[in-house]
Amino acid sequence: MSRNMKLFLGCGCLLVVMCACACIAVFVGGPMMLASAFSSDTAKARQVGAQIADYKLPAGLSEQLSMDLVVVKMVVIARLDSSGPTPPMYMMMQAQGMDRDQIEQQMKQAIQQQLQNNADIQFTQVGTQQVTIKGKPSTMTIYEGRSNDAGLVRQAVVSFEGKGGTVVLMILDSTATWNQAEINGFLGSIR
C-alpha cells in the first residue's frame, strides 16, 4: 500500500471517528441545550428582551419567560398581578430565515399551547390600527375570539425591525382588561 493511500485511509478513519463523536454529542447534548434555551428566570428573560429590542415596560408588566435559540429569541411579558391563564404580551424575534407570517404562525401555536383549555379559540380579524414603532409606521392587526376562561379575547399583531431581524409583537388580553393607552405607550417606547 502506498504512502498516499495510507494517509488517505488514515484521514478517512479520523473523519469517521470525528463524525461519530459529533453525532453522539448532538444526541446526548442536544436535548440539554434545547432545555437550557427555555427559561422562567426573569433576569434571563430581561436579557433576551434586551437582545430583541430596547423598550420601557408599562408599570405592572415584567419579563417572565424566555426562549433563546441560535436563530429564534422570544420573551413573554406578563402582568405581575395576573391570575388569568394568558399573559398579555408576547414578543418574538427571528434573526434568520423567517418572515412576519411565519413568525406569527409560530407565535399562534405557542399561544394555543398556553391556552390549553381554550385550544378551540378561533380569532377573527376585526380591524387594523396604524402605529409608529422606532419612528416608522406599521400596521397593527386586531383579532378577537371567545375564550372559555376569559370571555372575549383580543389579540393585536405588529412587526418591526429589531436588533437582529424582524420582530413580531403579539399582544393578547381579555377585552375587559385591554388597555390601549398602555399598549400605545409600550409601542412608543420601543427603540
The biggest beta sheet, please? 8 strands, antiparallel
In one word, what is the shape? Answer: globular
Proportion of residues in β-strands: 25-35%
> What's the alpha carbon Rg, rounded to whole Å?
22 Å
Q: Termini, distance in Å?
A: 66 Å
Report on this model:
With about 190 residues, the chain is of the alpha+beta class. The protein has four helices and eight strands, in the order H-E-H-E-E-E-H-E-E-E-E-H. It has helices at about 5-35, 40-50, 100-115, 180-190, and strands at about 40, 60-70, 70-80, 90-95, 125-135, 135-145, 150-160, 165-175. Strands 1-2-3-4-8-7-6-5 form an eight-stranded antiparallel β-sheet, sandwiched between helices. The N and C termini lie far apart (about 65 Å). Residues about 5-30 have low confidence and may be disordered.
Describe the SSE topology.
Layout: H1 3-37, E1 38-39, H2 42-52, E2 61-68, E3 72-79, E4 89-94, H3 100-114, E5 124-133, E6 136-147, E7 151-161, E8 166-174, H4 180-189
Antiparallel strand pairs: 1-2, 2-3, 3-4, 4-8, 5-6, 6-7, 7-8
